[in-house]
Amino acid sequence: MTIDMTGFRIRKLSVLALAAATLAAGAALAPASASTTGGQPAAAESANRWGKPDVDVRFATFNASLNRGAEGELLADLSTPDNEQAQVIAEIIQRNDPDVLLVNEFDYVEGGAAAELFRDNYLAVGQNGAEPVDYPYYFVAPSNTGIPSDHDLNNDGVVGGPDDAFGFGLFPGQYGMVVYSKYPIDTAKVRTFQNFRWTDMPHNLLPTEFYSPEEREILRLSSKSHWDVPIRIDRKKTVHFLVSHPTPPTFDGPEDRNGRRNHDEIRFWADYVDSKRTSYYIYDDDGRRGGLVPGSDFVIAGDQNADPLDGDSYEGAINQLLEHRAVNAKTPPASEGAVEASALQGGINLEHLGDPRFDTADFAEPPGNIRVDYVLPSKSLRILDSAVFWPVSSDPLSWLTGTYPFPSSDHRLVWVDVRLPHMR
Ligand SMILES: [Ca+2]
Ligand SMILES: [Ca+2]
Ligand SMILES: [Ca+2]
Ligand SMILES: [Ca+2]
Fold it and tell me: What is the per-residue pLDDT for 29?
C-alpha cells in the first residue's frame, strides 16, 4: 500500500484537536445533518495540511452484491453483526481500506438505515483481525430500480413486474448504491440525475420502434441513478465522485434496448465532464442545467457493465470514457488472481481479446470473466498505484473472493490511488 496512512492518522488527530477552535471561528463546513448523510460534523479537515502537504486519496468501487430478494431483507440482515456475506464484504473493504468508496448493489432504504447498519455493525468491526474502517460520511438516494413505470416496457403483454420498472428490480431501491467517505461530503452540492429522461439526450440510441411514443416520453436514462457527489478533501479542494451502475447490455432482444441504454448511461458521464457544448442538455433532479464546471477534478466510478473488448456491450460503449480527453485511463487496475482464474476456468475466457489481468468480474459464460468495474480519475489527478482485489489461490486472503458460489460477490473491488495536484 503506497498511501501514507500514518500521515492520514496524524492529520486526523490534529483535525480533532483543532475542531473546537475552528467551529468557534465559524469556519467549519456545515455538519452532515441531512437524512441522506451520516456521521459527525465536518471539522476543519484542512487545518494542518501545511504540515502534511501530500494528500494521496484512495478511491474504490465495489459491486458488493448486497442486494436481497425482498424489501426489508437487507435491513434485517444488517441489523445484527453476524450476516456471513456482509462480514466477508466488510473484510474485503477493510483489507483494501479505501478513503472514498462506491458500493453498487446495495438496496436503498430511506433515510440511509441500511447504509448506517452496514457501517456500524460491519465496517466499524474488525473482521478476522483486519483493522476496522471508519466512514464518518456517506450518501444514499433513491434508485429507479423496481419503481413501476405503469407501462409494458418489455412488450410481453402484461404491465408490472421487475422488467416494466424504470430500472430492473423486484422492489423500489433493489440494487441501489451507497457512497462511503472518510472525507466530508458537500451534501448541499450533490447533484442527482434519477429523473433525467432518455429522450432528452440528443442523438440517443433509444430503440424507437420497440417503445411506444408514450413510453419514449417517460423512460428515464439511468437504470439506478447517476450522482455527482462532491468530496471535500480540503477546504480548497473538491473531487467530484461521479457514480452510477448502468444496466447490463443483456436480458433483451434483437432491438438491444439494454445494450443501447448501457451505452447512453456511460455516455452521460462522458458528456458531463467534457464541455459546455456536449453537456448543455443535462439537467439534474432539482432542475439545474449543465455539466461539471470545466477544470474540476473528478473520479468516475462504478460497475459500467461494459468491457472494452469482450462481452456484448454496444460498440464503443466503455471507450467513450477510456478514450475521453479528460479521463486518465492510462494504467488499468490489474490482478494476478484474474489471470489464474481465467486459465483455471478456460472456455470462453481463452477466446477473450482483453488481457485477463484487467478482469474485474467472475461471470459464467457467456460472457465469462470481463472488465466491468472502473475507477477513472480526471487527467488532472496523478495515478500513484491501482489494483483489482483478486488474490491468487495460494494467497491466505483468497477465500474472501473465492470461487462460485461466491462467499462475497461475483465482482472484485477496484481501487486507484491519486495524488491531488495542488497539495504537492
Ligand atoms: Ca411487461
Ligand atoms: Ca411497450
Ligand atoms: Ca443486448
Ligand atoms: Ca476476460
Answer: 32
Compute, in angstroms, the gap from residue 192 CA to the centroid of ligand 2: 27
Burial state string for 247-262 with b = 16 or more CB within 10 A and e = fewer than 16: bbbeebeeebbbbbbb
Is the predicted pLDDT of residue 233 greater than 90, yes or no?
Answer: yes
- b/e map of 279-318 (b: 16 or more CB within 10 Å)? beebbbbeeeeebbeeebbbbbbbbbbbbbebbbbbeebb
The pTM of this model reads 0.88
Nearest ligand (C-alpha, residue 317): 3
67 alpha carbon – ligand 4 mean position (Å):
25
Residue 323 CA to ligand 1 centre (angstroms): 37
Give the number of the ligand closest to the Cα of residue 354: 4
- Looking at the predicted structure, is the pLDDT value of residue 87 above 60? yes
Q: What is the pLDDT of residue 51?
A: 54
Specify the CATH class of 5-423 in words.
alpha beta
Give the ligand whose atoms come closest to the C-alpha of residue 358: 4
Question: What are the two backbone dihedrals, phi and then psi, of residue 132, each rounded to the nearest 5 degrees?
Answer: -60, 155
